[in-house]
Amino acid sequence: MAKPKIIEEWELFISILNNHGLYPELEDVAEHYEISMTTLKRWIKDYESFRLKTDRSERKKHKLQKVHSRDKSRLYAAIPNADDTSHLGGPGGYCVTSALFGARPNRHVIEAMKIYARRNKAKCVVLPSQYGTTYKLNKATNEYELVTGLPNYITKDPDLTVVYAEMQDSVELSPKVAINTQRLEPTLDQPLSRLEAIGGKQTQIFAHPKMDMRAVAVDNIGTPKLLICTGAITYPDRYKESKKARVARERHCWGFVYIHVNEDGTFHYRQILSNELGEFYDIDGVFYTPKGAKKQKQAVDSLVMADLHNGATDPVCLYLTFCKGGVVDTLKPQWIHLHDSFNGHSVSEHDKKDKRVMSLKAARGLLNVETELQQLLDRYRWMMKMSPSSTKFKVIPSNHCEWLDRWLNSDDPLSSYKQWLSRLEYAKVVETYGKLVRIVEEYQKEHPHSELGAMPIYMLAHMTTAERKRFIFLERDDDSLHPIGAADPIKMDMHGDMGSKGSRGSVAQFARASMRTFTGHAHTPVINGTAWQVGTSTGRERYVKGLCDWLNTHGLVFKNGQRQMFNIIDGTFSENSIRVLPEDCPKDMANIAI
What we know:
The chain is of the alpha/beta class. Helices cover 29% and strands 20% of the residues. It has 18 helices and 26 strands. Strands 6-7-8-10-9-23-24-22-21-20 form a ten-stranded mixed β-sheet. Helix 15 packs across helix 16.
């Protein structure tokens, strides 16, 4: 029988052996040392096997000195150049990344990150990552030593602060966000799985070479808790040879998380994805390299707007996106992708049986289909007016936009309106129904192979030639790959409601695809490997009950193919952006949907 591994707490074993068989006393030992009974029994069994297979002199050679599991002073001595972390926390910027023990550092990414930190007055924090056991016992010196450790290029750099898990459990940057030192195996495919309970309601940043992110519902209102992975600054050359490791190498992300903590404890964060040469953009359009930083005039290829739901849109989110000094005015994207731009409150099947909601809609004039379509057309025109003339729009096929088609093709589309509308209002709905049917039939005669829905057909019929050049309405199976002509483009034509072969869509399914995707639909921002999902441009809607993880989160695609997501928090989209208050928004921005 092979010898069991050397146990750290020899004194604990002596206590166990002296009380062997007396379970009440063993329970006291377990409580005192905070060890489970299962672990104690297993250790007893391992030690008995060791004692029977070796003689007294052999056991004496392996005997350890007294080392209490809670006394970490000897572990500290094993960490070379352990950094003082007392300066971390409080308002300011932080660049947080991970480094794998024993792996080669990517000096390009490190130097570019340091330039980014200096430009943004931020502190660089490195979290070590490691397979299995971090420390081993040197039998010759009877001291603990790091298994491999980080390279001197990282540990001896005065601009980098290395935070070891053995020295502290986490670094609290504010009551709302913390850097968590929980070790995650670098090859985990879902590194954030089952971590929701860690840190309570506080956003947690974890060291992992993937750059995943997920939102966790912790309250009925307010900002959800976020779980964020950092990316890495070391090469993935320490991964073991296995299928799991091969997949991990493919999903390895260069970069870091930038987080800016405000005086009130709120924060903005962005996951900065770099290429292997240390080149990346940030939300301000500045291009960073290991040699410096330079502002670019046309940095952004596409803005992926969070689900619009016109009529139910949060006015601050919408106005900040398009106002002077806002998102579009600052970034000047070549393309803007719109998800669920048509809300469909006038034709919603979900509300037909709800008498209270139908009565409120009728009283507020929300059951007039053409009125809702005209309001959306006006919103499109306002977006074009507020955007650079070179910016074009792509409307992504989505479930809300297709509600109009379901209404037109239903067996009795007008019956649900008759009891709620006056005779005159009902006549207008009947007239709108006939007009829509006629417009759709005429378009289908001219374009017999088109599968375009009724909503985009109505828009095209009422747009000018110049407007039609700027607005592109996609069909379900159209491909929209950005940046156009890139070697590794992002598939951006899927809303997220429909998956493979017409199945129900999900981020998990898109993550298994062979290419990068950008979707919407769920109103919750998610990063799962290659699959990214934006949030919503609305507030909490009527039909949402209980805990909510929705967030106003837009996505960006830069011209080099790099991606980034950012949140609109308290009327700002970054730590340096303008702030929009509800009273600053035009009156026609008000949320009118129920």
